[in-house]
UniProtKB/TrEMBL annotation:
Pfam family for this entry, one: ZZ
Topology with respect to the bilayer: Peripheral membrane protein
Transmembrane segments: none
Keyword Cytoplasm set for record: yes
UniProt keyword terms in alphabetical order: Calcium, Cytoplasm, Cytoskeleton, Metal-binding, Zinc, Zinc-finger
Compartments, as annotated in UniProt: Cell membrane, Sarcolemma; Cytoplasm, Cytoskeleton
Organism: Diploptera punctata (Pacific beetle cockroach)
BP-aspect Gene Ontology terms: modulation of chemical synaptic transmission; muscle cell cellular homeostasis; synaptic signaling
Molecular-function GO term, any one: zinc ion binding
Matching PANTHER family: DYSTROPHIN-1, E3 UBIQUITIN-PROTEIN LIGASE KCMF1
Protein name according to UniProt: ZZ-type domain-containing protein
GO cellular component, one term: dystrophin-associated glycoprotein complex
Length: 304
């Protein structure tokens, strides 16, 4: 994970560190949920703390099940030990000898191979009440568990505990009298609140890892660009591979202050045409809404 520290932007740096671990584990969310149920650790047991021997039994079963259905070779014992060590470092700094079930579920969901919305739905179900809503206290609990991860990864400057109250407030602007519904919760998360922007970034890094873009990096000349691709919104036909972007490289033509567009999949002809039309409208002074979230370099979550 130390190699990820060359990445200039905190959102990508945090995601890259977790991707190192995620790539090693091969966990489906359905398998994770099924094993917890077999160990009688349903939603009602989320507040229970597991001793490390109990935690080891749960994790071993998860990785054993993952091994049986995966085409990849999984060392069950090594994966179990790795995850126990990670959970201990994240949630048990004082060496109490136990970790709360809910915290374990959060970490495993984050590192699973599930789609992003499936992860959000799973997290919501863990704390939803009988009205299928979550309170501000429950949302704080989810956020605190996620922030523990970024703090362990030495990313607390961009994603720290002090940001939780404001983040909760931004979600509860839409709250009803009973709390936040699942639709509001997921819709809010899909807007990528700054405190958690590393989570959807992790998902896009996973999606784009093996994607080949039929363009050349304007700096290092890599062709094709593999992984995430970044297109400058100010420089015409200026593309960066993820390594050049991550390390903040620039030249006389392209400046770090320029906003860029991230692509995690190869664009179609229609999308390329739409992008050129957007650039034309921008140059002509017309208003145009971007189809993708552009990256503004001055954003605190993208600074060292």
């Amino acid at each position: 994970m130390n190699e990820c520290n060359i990445i200039k932007f905190a959102g990508y740096r945090t995601a890259a560190k977790l991707r190192v671990l995620q790539r090693f584990l091969h966990m489906r969310l359905g398998v994770i949920a099924g094993v917890f149920n077999r160990h009688h650790l349903q939603v009602s047991e989320n507040g229970v703390t597991l001793k490390y021997a109990e935690l080891e039994a749960v994790l071993f079963d998860i990785f054993f099940a993952a091994q049986r259905e995966s085409s990849s070779q999984i060392d069950v014992e090594q994966s179990t030990d790795l995850m126990i060590n990670f959970l201990q470092n994240v949630f048990d700094r004082k060496a109490s000898g136990s970790v709360e079930v809910f915290c374990v579920k959060v970490v495993l969901a984050v590192l699973s191979s599930a789609k992003l919305q499936e992860k959000y739905e799973y997290l919501f179900r863990q704390l939803a009440d009988h009205n299928n809503c979550i309170s501000s206290n429950k949302l704080e609990k989810i956020l605190a568990s996620l922030v523990h991860i970024s703090v362990y990864l030495n990313e607390s400057t961009a994603f720290g505990f002090e940001q939780i109250p404001e983040t909760v407030g931004s979600c509860f602007k839409q709250a009803g009298t009973l709390g936040i519904t699942e639709d509001i919760f997921i819709g809010w998360l899909l807007q990528e609140p700054q405190l958690l922007m590393w989570l959807p970034t992790l998902h896009r890094m996973q999606m784009g890892e093996m994607v080949h873009h039929t363009v050349k990096c304007s700096l290092c000349k890599l062709y094709p660009i593999v992984g995430l691709r970044f297109r400058c919104l100010e420089c015409l036909r200026y593309n960066l591979c993820q390594m050049c972007f991550f390390t903040g490289k620039s030249n006389k033509r392209h400046k770090l202050q320029h906003p860029v567009q991230e692509y995690c999949y190869e664009t179609s002809s229609c999308e390329k045409f739409a992008f050129l039309k957007m650039i034309k409208n921008k140059l002509c002074g017309s208003s145009c809404q971007l189809q993708y979230l552009s990256i503004q370099p001055h954003d605190v979550a993208f600074e060292t």
